[in-house]
Amino acid sequence: MASKQKNQNNGGDGALSRVRCAIYTRKSTEEGLEQDFNTLDAQRESCKAYIASQKNQGWTPVPEHFDDGGFTGANMERPALKRLLAKVEAGEVDCIVVYKIDRLTRSLLDFSRMIEILERHGATFVAVTQQFNSTTSLGRLTLNILLSFAQFEREMISERTRDKMNAARRRGKWVGGAVVLGYDLVPGGGALVVNAEEAERVREIYRLYLEFGSLIPLVQELDRRGWRLKSRLTREGKRVGGSPFNKTKLHNLLTSVIYTGRVKHQGEIYSGEQERIVDDATWNAVQERLNRNGRRGGRNVRNKHRALLKALVRCGSCGVRMIHTYVQKKGKIRYRYYVCENARQKGWTRCQTRSVSAPALEGAVLQQLRSIAQNPAVLSEVLGQLERQRQETGRNTPMADPDEVKEALARFDPLWEHFTSWERESFIRTLVSGVRFDGRTSEVTVAFRSEALKQLCNVNVESARDGNG
């Protein structure tokens, strides 16, 4: 394929214009790239040979390599491709040379974007094994047809791969993912083999849970013993994993069907090929105890009660977030509170703050808002932000007349009572960017969001401390 006409014509002195050619190579996986001469090298050699054949047209290769090993052609998120297109836009490359078009892209949309970039900067490209000219309308039509088939092929391969993995899962085969404590991956992959030392540790964890009866004490016991999650070496020789247990990770281990010689796929349980580690009697006893303790998912209790400060509170002792949750007895909410995530996951002894009564903490923040609502500068800021938030969220909540809102803000409590649950949350989040509660001093620090309220307001709420705190 020839390059742009301006690059082909001789100059006034009879000399050919130079066509700077950048070679781009790509491979979807990293497999085989460690070899001395890999597929990227083979692609580059073919492209260099083609460029050499066009030497009489002024073609010359640029020395920089643009290789994307281990990157899919389904998108443009590739480091070498980005560098290459930047060179084109900077006027440093006149022609991109690839072995086949699907090395450049497998997406019609991305292809059209690249063509626009090339044409805008007077550049073009060559696929050395397919001989298509991207500078002509007929050439572009041919390329579009070819890429349509390339994209279709990619989608078919994805579907076949997905179907193959689903079928393998239903037959109980291991198809990849993080290897759990108690198993190793066989050499070459594709199956799990029991790690005898780790398997004994898994069985002991199951036994200890039945002894302790709950997750937190067991997390503390595992930490005392120095037991950790599975660790492994990556291909680069870097060790990953091996983190300490917390309540969620322990729950995942205690509910993983893989230890019973089975696999779970799309909500269904199938017999697996791996040897079981935990017997049925122990497994069933642990699941029954977990269910009785109300920890089916091992996840946070969902906030069903419109907690005003949800995702806003952080622990003053640990600096981690505090989660809204509640205690429910006989179908009724008995107690709402915010609990430190560190204490929740690793035990009460890990945090001095631990938890705080939700009504008390929310009341302290509301009291601070009552005091600032009398400031005229605040009133204007509140009105503007509420209206902007209403427009951004697309909610059709009727907004009161500004004068009426100003008058109502002077009477904070009646206004608050008039708000819906969503309006109360919206009001709080409009003004408050964060709340910090320190259980050691019972101090609440409120950080305000608007420019008119850029200050920290401290409120002491001895009553905010949880009785267990």
Model description:
This protein is of the alpha/beta class and 469 residues long. The protein contains 16 helices and 18 strands. The strands form 6 sheets. Strands 1, 2, 3, 4 and 5 form a 5-stranded parallel beta sheet that branches. A 4-stranded mixed beta sheet has the order 12-16-17-18. A 3-stranded antiparallel beta sheet has the order 13-14-15. Helix 2 links the parallel strand 1 and strand 2. The longest helix has 34 residues. The protein starts with a helix and ends in a 9-residue tail after the last strand.
Q: Write down the Rg.
A: 32 Å
**What is the number of E strands?**
18
Number of helices: 16
Low-pLDDT sequence parts = 1-12, 295-303, 451-469
Report the sheet with the most strands, covering strand number, pairing sense and barrel closure. 5 strands, parallel
- Which structural class is indicated by helix and strand composition? alpha/beta
Total count of domains: 3
Would you tell me the overall average pLDDT?
78
First-to-last CA distance: 76 Å
- Report the helical percentage: 40-55%
| Gross morphology | flat
* % residues in beta strands: 15-25%
